[in-house]
Each structure stands twice: as C-alpha cells, then as structure tokens.
Amino acid sequence: MIEFLENIQLKKYNTFGVEAKAHYFVAVSSYDELKSLIANLKPAENKHLIMGGGSNLLFTKDFDGWVMHSEIHGIEIIEETDKQILLKVGSGESWSDFVDFTVEKGWGGLENLSLIPGSVGAAPVQNIGAYGVEQQEAFVNLEACNLITGKKCILNKLECDFDYRHSIFKGAEKGKWFVLNVTYRLEKIPRPNLNYTPLQKAFENTPAEEITVKAVSEAVKGIRRSKLPKPEELGNAGSFFKNPVILHEKFLNIQQHFPQIPFFSSENGKVKIPAGWLIEQAGWKGKQIGNAGVHHQQALVIVNCGKATGKEILQLSKDIQNDVLQKFGIMLEPEVLIL
Ligand code: EPU
Q1: I want to staple 296 with a disulfide (CB 3.0 to 4.6 A). Which of 36, 136, 286, 287 is the partner?
Q2: What's the pLDDT at 273?
Q3: How would you write the chain as a 3-class SS string?
Q4: Among 165, 167, 217, 317, the one annotated catalytic
Q5: Distance from the CA of 276 to the center of ligand 1, in angstroms?
Q6: Within this chain, do residues 120 and 240 fall inside the same structural domain, yes or no?
C-alpha cells in the first residue's frame, strides 16, 4: 500500500528554498504504486503537481492537492553496439549524477549538460539545455503513466514535440503524464560540441585528442560555477526567464537604439536575445529588494537572499518584467513554473 503524507513543508524540496505546504505528498517508487494511487483517487481529488528536483518552480502559496515525487531509480543498458549505447534511466535519478555516470564511462552526448540541477524525469518536460546542447539531441523516448487512466505508454521524440525549454508536457498534455523513465542514446565515439563561444575559447589551444567527454564536462562545470549560484548556498531556480525570441524587424528597431545588443539567430528569421543582457541594461543586476535579489554574476538568475517568500520573489520578477517592457518593448516570459 502506497503511503502519503499530509501537510508537508516543501521548503527542502524546492531550490528557491521558499516555504509552502503540500496538502498531500506522495513518493512514487514504481509504476504499480502509481497505478494503485490513481485507481483510488476520486477525479475531484486529482489535483496534482509532479515534482522532480524542485529546481524550476516557485511556490507563491500552499499547494492544495497532491504533490507527487518520483523515486523511480536505476540506470539500465538496453542496447549496445560498438558505436552507441542506449540507457533507460529512472525518472527519480538526479540528472547531474546521471550525466556524471555517462561522463565517467566516456560516453558522449550529455557532457554539456553537466551539473544541471533537477531530476531525469524533468529533463524532457523542460527540454533542458545548456552550452549549445539540448537534452532532445540524445533523447530516444520516454515511458509515462497517464494520470487519468493509469495506463502507461511510450512517447517518442516527435510525440514529445520538443522546442526551446518546451515539450508537449508543458503544452497540450500539461499535467496529464507522470514520467516513469527516459531512454537516451550516447556515443561511444564522442563528437564534442563546442558551439558555445566560451567553451570553444576554453579549448582553442587544446589538441583534438585531449578534448574528451570528461574534459568538456569539467570545462562546463567550471563555467557554470563561475556564473550560477549553488542552490544550497543561495536559493535560486537557474534562469528565471526564457531568452525572448523576437521578429527580425523588431530586433532591427531595438538595435538602432542599442547597437551593442547581443543576439543569436533563431529559426524562421527570428532573433533570440539574452534576457540577462536586457535585465542588466534595465539596471537590475545585483539589486536586492527585501529578501529577493538579482544575482550579481548573472542577471537572469533571481535569488533568495535569506528568508524570501514566493510572493516577494514573484513581485521582484514582475518589477523586472515591467522595466524591461518599458525600456525594450519586450515582455519576458518566466521559465520557472509559478504556483
Ligand atoms: N548577459 C549579460 N548580463 C548578464 C547575463 C548575460 O549581458 O547578467 C549576456 C551576455 O552577452 C552573455 C549572454 O547574455 O554573453 C548569454 O549569457 P549566458 O551565456 O550566461 O547564457 P544565458 O542566455 O543567460 C542560457 C540558458 C542557461 C544556460 C546558458 C548557457 C536560458 C533561459 N538560459 O542562459 O540555462 O546555462 O544559456 O547555455 O536559455 C537555465 O535554464 O536555468 C539555465 C541556467
């Protein structure tokens, strides 16, 4: 019989470290457990939140429903050739530990995603990405349980509809699925991806044979540590906003007024602009209001300077949005889930 807890404090389960209570909290360690839980839930009670590492959400109030937390573990080799290996990973595994495991084996594909907080199950939901790579590049499929019917099925890459920090689980199928496990394809003959300029610079004088999976992972970790605060030391959820993607025409207009604006070309003639730059230009970098602040090294990261409430952090994010909108005519969209 699956056990659930009532009125649980979620402070240690979210990387912002804000206080919020869950009406019910249940740790799921297998598909069978989840199936029996769903079978016993009345539809009216079925208000739920699936929480991985709690590294991409902001609680602004108590959660009046079920918080489900995956504790499905294990890494299983399901196929192996001379060139590639397919690994099926439990959704409750730590993403960062999983990447370290693949790096230690010398298997390539996920090394640029080293040290990202959160769980394996959350990685495809958010289509996590960093330093020139998104998880979708190594993704094969995932197995998920439908939270209404209790049935499980496999969704492939196309069905997940991945996009920048987006998947079907944040769109049309939001809240319907509990990810049980994810399968990734890793390369035994790795091809390092050094498209991210600081990473390229880090290796410009390194002979090709020394640019190993491990070396790239270490470089990524170094860059991350220099820019992003550790949640254990300073509560945060990584980038608070997405980098906005705007029409080329609008971009040219802004560029006329701000010739130094950094940008990346995106698909369909659109332009992606670093939100961190916009926030910094709006004067927010390093600022603190009450217990919430903007990180002094990376303006895209909002931090809990001590005992911030979720509401305080939300208010700061709205103030930032307003100022950026006024200055640039761009409405920043939160990357974190606000509850
Ligand atoms: N910038 C500033 N000021 C700042 C921060 C950034 O001017 O305070 C400008 C600089 O021009 C810099 C550019 O923004 O060159 C890009 O900054 P950075 O390389 O740090 O990346 P980012 O666009 O701010 C994105 C992801 C990060 C990911 C990095 C590296 C999003 C929303 N964020 O940040 O992901 O680690 O690229 O690939 O796409 C996350 O999602 O939580 C996250 C940390």
Answers
A1: 286
A2: 96
A3: CCCEEEEEECHHHCCCCCCCEEEEEEEECCHHHHHHHHHHCCHHHCCEEEECCCCCEECCCCEEEEEEEECCCCEEEEEECCCEEEEEEECCCEHHHHHHHHHHHCCECCHHHCCCCCECCHHHHHCCEECCEEHHHCEEEEEEEECCCCCEEEEEHHHHCCECCECCCCCCCCCCEEEEEEEEEEECCCCCCCCCHHHHHHCCCCCHHHCCHHHHHHHHHHHHHHHCCCCCCCEEEEECECCCEEEHHHHHHHHHHCCCCCCEECHHHEEECCHHHHHHHCCCCCCEECCEEECCCCCCEEEECCCCCHHHHHHHHHHHHHHHHHHHCCCCCECCEEC
A4: 165
A5: 6
A6: no
Q: Return the ligand 1 atom nearest residue 239 CA.
A: 42
pLDDT digits (tens, 9 = 90+) for 163-214: 999 999 998 888 899 999 999 999 999 999 999 999 999 999 999 999 999 9
Pair (186, 154) in one structural domain: yes
Active site residue 165: yes
Query: In terms of domains, do 90 and 221 share one?
Result: yes
- Clarify whether 335 is annotated catalytic: yes
Residue in 114, 217, 239, 317 annotated catalytic: 239
Ligand 1 pocket (Cβ < 6 Å) reads 130-131, 196, 227-228, 238-239, 242-243, 262, 274, 276-277, 280, 285, 298-300, 335
- Identify whether residues 184 and 101 lie together within a single domain: yes
Domain that holds residue 113: 75-227
Q: What is the CATH number of the domain that holds 176?
A: 3.30.465.10
**Do 284 and 198 lie in a common domain?**
no
Q: Is 265 a catalytic residue?
A: no
Q: Is the whole model's pTM more than 0.85, yes or no?
A: yes
pLDDT one-digit tens code per residue, 143-157: 999 998 999 999 999
| Count of domains for the chain | 3
Instruction: Please tell me the residue having the least CA distance from ligand 1 atom 36.
Output: 130
Q: What is the pLDDT of residue 42?
A: 66
Of all atoms in ligand 1, which is nearest to the CA of residue 131?
Answer: 38
Residue nearest to atom 41 of ligand 1 (CA): 239
